[in-house]
Specification:
52% strand, 22-stranded antiparallel beta barrel, Maltoporin, Chain A, mainly beta
């Protein structure tokens, strides 16, 4: 973790002071209070439901929402979750929801990766290294835990979100309300399990193909005023990253991944709660090899080297903590949260092999610290008007250290010596982002609701930029069982702070690490107009269908690519771009059978790379400057489906599938990868305190290639995993 600079300390001190000022009076009062009484929470106002176009198999989320409108009052005992639930608004957007039980009904269940879960949502495209793309955009996802923003970090292969601690997950897409800014292709809002959700715990052992072993444990409960939930796990596998070849077993691909999560809530009184979240993950990955690659350079003392013997490794460490104060007085809700996150990625090269095959061996360390304050509130102005206002401030510090071994070379890049030299470089970037927003949820009548607002974001990183972003959403629920929504949003997305500056480029002149292009214009924030229109139709109480269309007009389009040896993504801008598409969704729940089917069409194009040009070949830059091209993560057709069949009250069969028409490839993304599909089969049975399951992934053992190593910003080929057989057993106590 980097040493805190004076500016960092100056920022953190007032943040902590502000938090203490807010919390101390409540803490004093708590010393005199007894056990809190149940919190009386009013039901959502009529006519303001969030549309839910695509529940997972058997979610029943729409039915649950309708039940909320009819219940009138909900009684919650000591949870403290309702203030943050009232604060969050997804009105007029696409809203996909899943709870912990529905998560278990997918292949792998809670043992699967978090990206595996997201791929079941409509419009989510699978990519390599665990990446997903939503509605034709590269990453740009916003993650929230209990409605507190999780700042982005230097994320490589590992995913710091463990599905095991998910109580419910809300995935929001479309024209987002004003409270959601910055990363806007989608919002993943996770409400964690807590002691009220889970009294007791589980111990699980899962494993199978590719030397996979995955023990885990979680426990929750209440003690007086404290509500807590803890989880932790470890996983070893011999297929940590996608195989670069079509073989069943990759070479040099072991991975060890550990994670821990803790949540605690303390009830100060009937209306005030303090929540604490702590999470950490440490993951190591071997970089897989390809056999029989030709040697490109000569290294003194090492005349020959086999490519299958390369030993490149990457380590990823992520930690974050949240301290939040929540208050609810009648219909007024408030949450004040402070958070801090440290993200560290270390790439260790093969000091000999990388020089022989690539002419450069780069040891790279990227370290990012982010800390911030976030305030959100819900204010009932009148019975038909609900005002939501909030503000956020985040400080970031990104440190990059690299040590590169290269060979001396002439002006044409030809090696002139077999004795390498070392080039050291470091960069320390600092930035801050400040945001404020306000929005009014106006219930015109029991059928129609309008949510209008605006936000202001000010970003000072590579350049100083800001924007006022108006938002407008409307939703109507008709007597025919039809829910329609429409929205417009102006978006402002700053680039991620981590980046290689131009200072490193000049140092590589006359070496085998020299770049043909040395231009490196500073990154810019993406600005966009976004339009969304959709509808869902309830066919019966147990079946519904939906359609959602969108169009995004972009300036300074943000994209990322994997350049160089370290498998860390680097951002760049296109001058302009357009994205449009449509999503079809459906779900049924007829006991003992439930299922879902999603189908999405997407078209994403861009023109002229305007920043970080040194990462690209001159001929590709020239072509893209005068042609509109597909972005590399565009996939025209994407589909997901799942079925759950209950054989008995204790035993069920699970089947899910993914289909993709292929990502882009070739020179300037002018080609497309072959289409693919995978089927996954599972079964689960429960007996008293024991639960056993079996999963078969890629049931038909399909060989499919996600990437072939070509395309804009694509570094290496990656194949999807071959057939795997896994099993597990869980004991509940």
């Amino acid at each position: 973790m980097p040493r805190l600079s004076n500016s960092t300390r100056q920022f953190l001190r007032p943040c902590l002071d502000a938090l203490l000022v807010a919390l101390v009076p409540a803490l004093v009062q708590a010393a005199e209070d007894g056990t809190p009484a149940p919190v009386q929470v009013p039901a959502p106002a009529a006519g303001a439901p969030a549309s839910a176009p695509a529940p997972a198999a058997g979610t029943g989320s729409q039915a649950d929402d309708e039940a909320d409108f009819e219940l009138g009052t909900i009684v919650v005992n000591g949870k403290g979750d309702e203030p943050r639930s009232d604060i969050s608004s997804s009105l007029g957007t696409g809203d996909y929801r899943i709870d912990s039980q529905q998560l278990e009904d997918e292949s792998g269940g809670a043992n699967a990766s978090f990206s595996h879960i997201l791929l079941r949502a409509p419009g989510v495209v699978q990519d390599s290294y665990g990446q997903v793309h939503v509605r034709g955009e590269h990453a740009n996802l916003q993650y929230r835990v209990n409605n507190v923003l999780l700042p982005t970090g230097v994320i490589g292969f590992g995913q710091q979100i463990d599905p095991r601690f998910i109580g419910t997950m809300q995935f929001i897409t479309g024209a987002l309300p004003a409270q959601y800014g910055l990363q806007t292709s989608g919002v993943v809002d996770i409400q964690t399990k807590d002691g009220s959700f889970q009294q007791g715990g589980d111990v699980s052992l899962y494993g199978g193909s590719y030397d996979t072993i995955h023990p885990s444990v979680d426990v929750g409960g209440t003690r007086g005023k404290v509500d807590y939930y803890l989880s932790g796990g470890f996983q070893h596998t011999s297929q940590g990253i996608e195989n670069p070849t079509a073989t069943r077993t990759p070479i040099h691909d072991d991975s060890n991944q550990g994670n821990a999560f803790a949540y605690a809530s303390y009830a100060l009184d009937d209306t005030d709660h303090i929540n604490v979240i702590l999470s950490g993950s440490a993951q190591t990955f071997q970089i897989p090899n390809v056999s029989n690659q030709p040697q490109a350079y000569t290294l003194a003392g090492t005349p020959t080297f086999l490519s299958q013997d390369l030993d490149e490794n990457q380590t990823e460490i992520n930690t974050y903590g949240v301290l939040a104060y929540q208050k609810q007085v009648r219909d007024f809700s408030l949450q004040l949260a402070s958070y801090v996150r440290n993200s560290r990625t270390i790439f260790d090269p093969d000091p000999h092999g990388d020089l022989i095959f690539n002419g450069i061996a780069s040891e790279v360390v990227r370290d990012e610290l982010a800390a911030g304050l976030q305030l959100d509130s819900t204010i009932p102005v009148r019975p038909d008007h609900t005002l939501r206002v909030g503000a956020a401030y985040e400080y970031e510090q990104s440190l990059t250290d690299s040590s590169d071994s290269v060979f001396p070379a002439d002006a044409q890049g030809n090696q002139t010596s077999d004795v390498p030299i070392t080039i050291d470089d470091s960069e320390d970037q600092k930035g801050r982002i400040a945001s404020i927003y306000a929005q009014d949820e106006w219930r015109l009548d029991p059928i129609w609701t309008i949510n209008g607002g605006a936000r202001f974001d000010d970003c000072y990183e590579y350049v100083h930029e800001s924007q006022v972003s108006p938002r407008l959403n409307t939703v109507g629920t008709l007597r025919t069982g039809t829910t329609v929504h429409a929205g417009y949003a102006r978006y402002f997305t700053p680039p991620p702070l981590e980046n290689v500056g131009a200072s490193a480029i000049d140092k590589f002149a006359n070496t085998t690490g020299a770049l043909p292009v040395t231009t490196d214009d500073p990154l810019r924030a993406e600005r966009a107009n976004y339009f969304d229109v959709g509808a869902t139709q309830t066919l019966t109480p147990h079946a519904q269908v939906g359609v959602d269309s969108y169009y995004k007009q972009e300036k300074n389009v943000l994209d990322e690519g994997q350049f160089g040896q370290s498998l860390i993504f680097t951002p760049f801008n296109y001058q302009k771009g357009d994205i449009y598409g449509v999503e079809f969704t459906s779900s049924v729940d007829f006991d003992p059978l439930s299922g879902y089917l999603n189908l999405a069409y997407s078209h994403a194009t861009a023109t002229n790379i305007t920043t970080a040009q040194y990462n690209f070949a001159p001929d590709e830059l020239a072509y893209i400057a005068s042609h509109t091209i597909y972005v590399d993560h565009n996939q025209t057709w994407t589909s997901s489906a799942g079925v759950v069949y209950a054989l008995t009250p204790r035993t069920k069969l699970l089947l899910d599938a993914l289909f993709g028409s292929g990502l882009r490839s070739g020179f300037a993304n002018t080609s497309v990868m072959p289409w693919y599909y995978t089927l996954n089969l599972g079964a689960e049975t429960t007996y008293q305190a024991w639960k056993a399951r079996i999963d078969i992934t890629n049931l038909l053992d399909r060989v499919y290639e996600l990437r072939d190593g070509t395309g804009v910003g694509v570094g290496a080929p990656q194949y999807g995993a071959r057939r795997g057989v896994y099993g597990g057993i869980t004991y509940s106590f």
